Amino acid sequence: MALKNMKVFQDFVRTATIETVAQEIEKFNAASGGAIVLSSEGFGGDFFQSNMFKGLHASQRRVDRYAVNGAASATALAQIEHNVVKVAGGFGPVIWEPSQISWVEQNEAQAIEAISSNLAEAIMQDQLNTIIASGLAAIENIAAITNDISASAGISLTALNNTHALFGDRSTMLIAQVMNGTTYHKLIGENITNTNRLYEYNSIRILDVLGKVTVVTDAPALFVAGTPNKLKVLTLVANGAFVMDGSDLIVNIETTNNKQRIETTFQADYAFGAGLKGFAWDTANGGKSPTDAELSTGTNWDQITTSIKDLAGVVTVVDADQ
Fold it and tell me: In angstroms, rounded to a whole number, what is the distance separating the alpha carbons of residues 48 and 87?
């Protein structure tokens, strides 16, 4: 590859990656029912902060028309702050020797396709794994919306139904389940035959299981090794978890000397925002540019709604070996 073509090559990789991610985001959102929303909206700074009015349902009261007309307790009109945290990621460096890989020099389009395709897949997988881990951590930190039967039972339709029941009369608001391949096939073993495929990209599958959208992906947080080994299912409401990706992608290609053969390296930096319905990122405890461990710490996600039914969803935890 001629050095004069490096800038053009670099721009093409960035453009192709952004376009690929945007296309797959659109397909994913349409198929997932909007429980996990991958957005092309971005924001500057470390956090995206927005305010909303706190619910006033508690101000409802019974009135006795014949009682003494005494004072009524007031409910303050208050706002709550919702914080989305920006997460940083990197890809590469990827290294090759232009003189030894003839296809790079002969057909740059092949190199662009290979790099941009793998980068797009890596970014989208990172976004999905991150928001799943965050959602599990935040919800599991609240016992009232976690059905943990890992000490006695494995996955079953009954277990999922009991988890959905934690939302009471709002259980119909739970529209999508997120599980790994092991969990999904255990449920298949319970004679679930309705597996209409809605979407597939890389290792992510979205299917219709018993009328409910089910996202099947082997996100690391959905399995926890231990005694016992645990499987987790994350069930979400509409817009329960969301990623804000403003195409904050920086790529760089460099060709260096000082070795017996010339080497070329590719490297990329990217960022996206992670947010959960009813939870705000704790800017003091969780901090800026969090690590995976910090994102997976439940206490770093603060409940900002009064009712648990206004939160992102519920979690099922079962014994993986049953």
Answer: 12
Give the per-residue pLDDT at 106: 59
Strands 204-209 and 196-201, sheet pairing: antiparallel
> What angle, 0 to 180 degrees and rounded to 10, lies between the N-to-C axes of helices 6-32 and 108-140?
40
Q: Which residues contact 49 (CB under 8 A, 6 or more apart)?
A: 81, 82, 83, 84
Secondary structure of residue 23 in the 3-state scheme:
helix
Q: How far apart are the first and last CA of the chain?
A: 55
Is 225 in a helix, a strand, or coil?
coil
- Which amino acid makes up residue 249? L
Beta-bridged to residue 249, according to DSSP, are 270
- How, if at all, do strands 301-303 and 279-281 pair? antiparallel
Please write the tens of the pLDDT for every residue from 132-162: 999 999 999 999 999 999 999 999 988 999 9
Residues 187 and 195 sit within 8 Å (Cβ to Cβ): no
* Total residues belonging to the chain: 322
Q: List, as one string, the DSSP characters of 117-139.
A: HHHHHHHHHHHHHHHHHHHHHHH
**Distance, CA of 119 to CA of 92 (rounded, Å):** 9
Q: Give the Cα separation of 215 and 10 in Å (integer).
A: 34
Cis peptide before 93 (omega within 30 of 0): yes
Task: Say how far apart CA 164 and CA 84 lie, in whole Å.
Answer: 26
pLDDT in tens, 195-216: 555 556 565 665 655 556 888 8
Token pair 């461990």 in the structure block, residue: 293
Task: List the structure tokens of 198.
Answer: 């809605």
Enter the DSSP assignment of 197: E
Cβ atoms of residues 216 and 180 within 8 Å:
yes
> Distance between CA atoms of 187 and 208, rounded to whole angstroms?
13
CB 267 within 8 A of CB 209: no
Question: What letter represents residue 239's amino acid?
Answer: N
pTM for the full model? Answer: 0.81
Q: Which residue has the tokens 């508690």?
A: 58
Q: How far apart are CA 173 and CA 164, in angstroms?
A: 10
